[in-house]
Design a protein that fits this description.
By secondary structure, the chain is α+β, with helices and mostly antiparallel strands. The chain folds into two domains: 4-159 and 291-296, 2-Layer Sandwich (Ribosomal Protein S5, domain 2), CATH 3.30.230.10; 164-287, 2-Layer Sandwich (Alpha-Beta Plaits). Helix content is 35%, strand content 24%. The strands form two sheets. Strands 1, 2, 3, 4, 5, 6 and 11 form a seven-stranded mixed β-sheet that branches. Strands 8-9-7-10 form a four-stranded antiparallel β-sheet. The model has no long low-confidence stretch (mean pLDDT 96). InterPro entries: GHMP_kinase_C_dom, GHMP_kinase_C_sf, GHMP_kinase_N_dom, GHMP_knse_ATP-bd_CS, Homoserine_kinase, Ribosomal_Su5_D2-typ_SF, Ribsml_uS5_D2-typ_fold_subgr. Pfam families: GHMP_kinases_C, GHMP_kinases_N. Catalyzes the ATP-dependent phosphorylation of L-homoserine to L-homoserine phosphate. Keywords: Amino-acid biosynthesis, ATP-binding, Cytoplasm, Kinase, Nucleotide-binding, Threonine biosynthesis, Transferase. It comes from Lysinibacillus parviboronicapiens.
Length: 297
C-alpha cells in the first residue's frame, strides 16, 4: 500500500447568474493536500485560507473522510495532512465543496475504496446539498447538473472553455446561509417561467461556447441576484465597469460576495489592470477553467 499522496482539487464558481444550484465551473485555483500515513492524526494549514484553531473531530476534511470510511465499512488510517489553498473562505469560490471533494478523495485513497467518478459526484453533491460546486470540483470544466430525490447526480460536462475569467474578491465574508436568508420562498408563475428561460439560455449558450450570448444571460438572473445584490460590495459598479472594459458578462460567484466576469482571453491583462485601478479594495484574480477536476499524484 502507498503511504504518501498529493491531492489537488479545483475551486469553482456556481450559478453564473441564473443557473441556480445547477451550473458550476471548475477554476484554476486550487486546494492541495500533501498526505502521509503516520501513527496519529495531524492537519496543518500552510496559509490563512483555513481555520486557525480547530478540534480534529470538527475539521471538515476529517469529518468527511471519516464519514466516507464509515459508510463503506472501513477504518480510517491516521494521517498527516498539510493543506495549501488558493480559495478564501466564505467568498463564493467553492472552498467548502473543495474540502468535501478532498475529504472523499482522501478516504478513497487511504482506505483503498476504488470509488467511481459517479460515486464521487453523488457523495459530494449529497453532502453539499446541491450539485453545482461539487460536480465542478470533481470533474473540472463546465458542469450542468441535477440531483434526484435519491441523491443521484446527472451531469453534462463540457471542457475546452476558451475564455478567461476574472474574480473580484472583497475583504468581507458572506456565509451561504446568510445569503440564502434573503431569497423569496416562492415566485409567481410568469416570473418563474421568465427566470427559467434565462437559465436555459445561459446553459445552451455555454454549451455552444457562445460566450457573448452567455455573458448577456449571466446578467439576466431573476432567481437570486436581485435579492442578494444589496449584500455585495460595489455590485453594480463592478458590473458596469466590467462591461465598459470588454467583459461579456459579470455575475455573483455562487452566493457571493465575490463577483466573476467572463472575458475574451485577448483582453485579459488589460482588463485586469484597468479593474485593479478602479477597485483597489478588491483582490482581482485572472484565472481560467480547470480541465481536470480532482487529481491524485
Amino acid at each position: 500500500m502507498r503511504k504518501k499522496w498529493q491531492i489537488s482539487v479545483p475551486g469553482s464558481t456556481a450559478n453564473l447568474g441564473p443557473g441556480f444550484d445547477s451550473i458550476g465551473l471548475g477554476l484554476s485555483l486550487y486546494l492541495k493536500l500533501d498526505v502521509s500515513l503516520q501513527d496519529s492524526w495531524e492537519i496543518i494549514h500552510l496559509d490563512d485560507n483555513g481555520p486557525s484553531e480547530f478540534e480534529l473531530e470538527q475539521h471538515l476534511l476529517y469529518v468527511i473522510a471519516k464519514k466516507i470510511a464509515d459508510q463503506y465499512g472501513k477504518e480510517l488510517p491516521s494521517c498527516r495532512v498539510a493543506l495549501s489553498s488558493e480559495l478564501p473562505l466564505a467568498r463564493g469560490l467553492g472552498s467548502s465543496a473543495a474540502v468535501i471533494v478532498a475529504g472523499i478523495e482522501l478516504a478513497n485513497q487511504i482506505c483503498e475504496l476504488g470509488l467511481t467518478v459517479q460515486e464521487k459526484l453523488n457523495l459530494s453533491s449529497q453532502i453539499e446539498g446541491h450539485p453545482d460546486n461539487a460536480t465542478a470540483s470533481v470533474l473540472g470544466g463546465l458542469t450542468i447538473s441535477s440531483m434526484d430525490e435519491n441523491g443521484i447526480v446527472d451531469t453534462f460536462h463540457v471542457n475546452d472553455i476558451e475564455a478567461s475569467f476574472v474574480v473580484f474578491v472583497p475583504n468581507v465574508e458572506l456565509k451561504t446561509s446568510e445569503s440564502r436568508s434573503v431569497l423569496p420562498e416562492q415566485f409567481e408563475r410568469a416570473y418563474a417561467v421568465h427566470a427559467s428561460a434565462n437559465a436555459n439560455m445561459l446553459a445552451a449558450s455555454l454549451m455552444a461556447r457562445d460566450f457573448e450570448r452567455a455573458g448577456r444571460y449571466m446578467e439576466a438572473d431573476l432567481f437570486h441576484e436581485p435579492f442578494r445584490s444589496t449584500l455585495i460590495p460595489q455590485y453594480a459598479e463592478i458590473r458596469a465597469a466590467a462591461k465598459v472594459y470588454g467583459a461579456y458578462g459579470t455575475a455573483l460567484s455562487g452566493a457571493g460576495p465575490t463577483l466573476i466576469s467572463i472575458i475574451p482571453t485577448t483582453i485579459a491583462e488589460d482588463f485586469v489592470t484597468a479593474m485593479a485601478v478602479k477597485f483597489p479594495e478588491h483582490h482581482i484574480i485572472l484565472t481560467k477553467a480547470d480541465e481536470y477536476g480532482v487529481q491524485v499524484i
